[in-house]
Amino acid sequence: MIKDFRTLASWGVVLAATATAVTATIGATTGGPPNPSPADPQPRPTAGQEETQAGPRTTERRRIATSVLGRDFQFTLTALRSQTDPLAASLRLQVFTFKDGAWRESDRALVGKADSWFWFPLTGRHAVCEFSTSGTEPAPVAVSVLITPSVGCSPTENFRIDNGQITPV
Q1: How far apart, in whole angstroms, are the C-alpha atoms of residue 56 and residue 73?
Q2: pTM of structure
């Protein structure tokens, strides 16, 4: 019984010490001087000044669909993030032909207008609603992508590929 009493007494001391430490911590956070601001090694421009960059900013790209028709044509849809609006994007259709043992770009065109798509739906899951291609000459290509999940898919844009050159239909 004395052994149990010593154990309980030691726990009581620990509990009392813990309660005192908690009280001291709470008291320190409710009063006293405010915390100092962290040192900022990178100066920021003030009002009226412009930020300068070391070099030209590269455009973020993401390939969202590819279709290969034998060794004749390869089609790709690529999302290009806007340089001016981080939420906007452009959609590019590229045509490649197989020449001299490698795929070479033969033409490219924008699907819709420049920066007319939203970046996140265009690069997210289920972004491509329709991307159909055919190996006939002239090759028809149909493209429809997600505008937003709540709005749904865009109207289908049709193109014709004649000798590797894109023509809107």
Answers
A1: 33
A2: 0.65
Tokens of 90: 């452009």
Is-contact 81 113, C-beta < 8 A? Answer: no
Q: Averaged in consecutive runs of 10 residues, what is the pLDDT profile of the chain (169 residues)?
A: 50 44 42 51 51 65 93 92 96 93 93 95 94 89 96 96 91
Amino acid making up residue 129 = C
Decide if 45 contacts 52 (C-beta within 8 A): no
Is residue 105 classed as helix, strand or coil in its secondary structure?
Answer: strand
54 to 43, 58, 85, 125: CA distances (angstroms): 15, 12, 20, 34
Q: Which two tokens stand for residue 50?
A: 């412009």
